[in-house]
Amino acid sequence: MKTPLLLLPALLGLGAVAPSQAQTTSVWNNKQCAVVLTYDDAIDGNLDIVVPALDSVKLRGTFYLIGSSPVVAKRLPEWRRAAQRGHELGNHALMHPCDGSLPGRDFVTPDNDLSKYTLYRAVSEVRANNTLLNAIDGKTARTFAYPCGDLTVGGVKFYDQLQNDFVGARGVTSGLQTPAQIDLTNIDAYMINGQSGDYLVDLVKQAQKSHTLLVFLFHGVGGGHGLNVDLKAHRQLLRYLKAQEKNIWVAPMVDVAAKVKASQQTAAGKR
Length: 271
Prior knowledge:
Elements: H1 8-27, E1 33-40, H2 44-56, E2 62-65, H3 70-74, H4 76-84, E3 88-91, H5 119-137, E4 144-145, E5 152-153, E6 156-157, E7 169-170, E8 190-191, H6 197-210, E9 213-218, E10 220-221, E11 228-229, H7 231-243, E12 248-250, H8 253-270
Parallel strand pairs: 1-2, 1-9, 1-12, 2-3, 4-7, 8-9, 10-11
Antiparallel strand pairs: 5-6
């Protein structure tokens, strides 16, 4: 049977769109989207509340550890066990330096003021933290998270010297992105501080509809940090992710970034 001419534009349009969507979902393990749960600063609540909560629903997250944190030093065996269960121990720098010259940075001390760092010191401290993390989990592939989202030392992007040390780096700019849109040197993330469970779930639904990557940036869960999300809200998010596990790929940042990197390299090779 001949195809009516009026239908040809629609059919051609479908042919143009379908491969793109198929390529995107293949990066997300043939699911609608990818969700990454990240937790910053190596606080007690990560081990006391978050890891058990994730383990209870068999989801895996990324914990960005500050190497100098007392919670790292005092609880090494517990961090090691978390890594053994599939959670990523990410790099949040050795001293968590932030740019004290920026507005609202009264909390920055002279000892960890990134604006007073040399480029060499910034890079060296991140690499020293990688050595520590490797001693804990035995892994060489991991991701980095910029302390305070600060990217530069003296106007120079210090991560440029670290790209071979990591699979990717998480930033603090909110956004949902397709694999092609993602900048692996500064991956978008939604910082959560006091938002409701409905808000968290709605973000996931938006990612499902747009076939994009959604990264959550948590600090305290149920307390323990100035930036915090309510336990009920966090639990509501985990319940939704578990219920939708056939449609949503929930994985540590290192796994998702590796898939994105491979897809971008493949796309670049076809140009």
